[in-house]
Amino acid sequence: MVMRAAVCLGLMVLASCASTRRHTGESKDFAPERRFEIAAGKMVELNLDVPASTIVAAEPIDPINPIEVVFEASVAVAWNIHVHDGQEVQYLQQGTDASGVLLYTPSRPGPISLLWENKTGATVSATIRVDGLPVGTTAHWEAP
């Protein structure tokens, strides 16, 4: 009887750990790493939708392990992390770099967008990889 209770307790612990596991997106066609050729004046956007259940106490976001996005481009590109608040766009982070690691921990549920824009006069090659999305987050790429 004690052995059976210990096995049940062990399975419950494993189940609870699995339910808070972080991953790279729930959209079935989402590829967490992509290579893009971004034409002059064009952009690539990664759209995420963080569910409310992720933000509340049932499945809190781990502030020690934020969403991590690593990018490398052939030349510097403008990038930003933003949210749409009604008709306004709120920029949370932004810069211009040829490579970088963007770290972001959502403080509220809903859409979050990460954007890379080619403001040069020639095509830019870029590789972007995302990791550590909160459980239940959906993700998709917008690219020309």
SSE arrangement:
Layout (H helix, E strand, L loop, with lengths): L1 H18 L13 E6 L4 E8 L1 H4 L11 E19 L2 E17 L5 E8 L6 E8 L6 E5 L2
Antiparallel strand pairs: 1-6, 2-5, 2-7, 3-4, 3-5, 3-6
Describe this structure in words.
The protein is α+β, with helices and mostly antiparallel strands and 144 residues long. It has one domain: GOLD domain (Jelly Rolls). 15% of the residues lie in helices and 49% in strands. It has 2 helices and 7 strands; from the N terminus they run αββαβββββ. Strands 1, 2, 3, 4, 5, 6 and 7 form a 7-stranded antiparallel sheet that branches. A hairpin with a 2-residue loop joins strand 3 and strand 4. The longest helix has 18 residues, at 2-19. It is globular, with a radius of gyration of 18 Å. 19% of the residues are buried. Mean pLDDT is 79; it is low at 1-23 and 56-61.
Characteristics:
7 strands, alpha+beta, Jelly Rolls, disordered N terminus, 144 residues, seven-stranded antiparallel sheet, 15% helix
CATH class category label: Mainly Beta
Q: Which series of helices and strands comes N to C? A: HEEHEEEEE
Count all strands and give the number: 7
Q: CATH superfamily, called what?
A: GOLD domain
Query: How large, in whole angstroms, is the Cα Rg?
Result: 18 Å
Do you know the CATH topology? Jelly Rolls
Structural class: alpha+beta
The CATH architecture assignment turns out to be Sandwich
The major beta sheet can be summarized as: 7 strands, antiparallel
Mean pLDDT, rounded to whole units? 79
Shape: globular
Question: What portion of the residues fall into strands of 2 or more residues?
Answer: over 45%
Helix content class: 10-25%
* Low-confidence region ranges: 1-23, 56-61
Total helices: the number is 2
Cα distance, first to last residue?
Answer: 62 Å
Overall domain count? 1
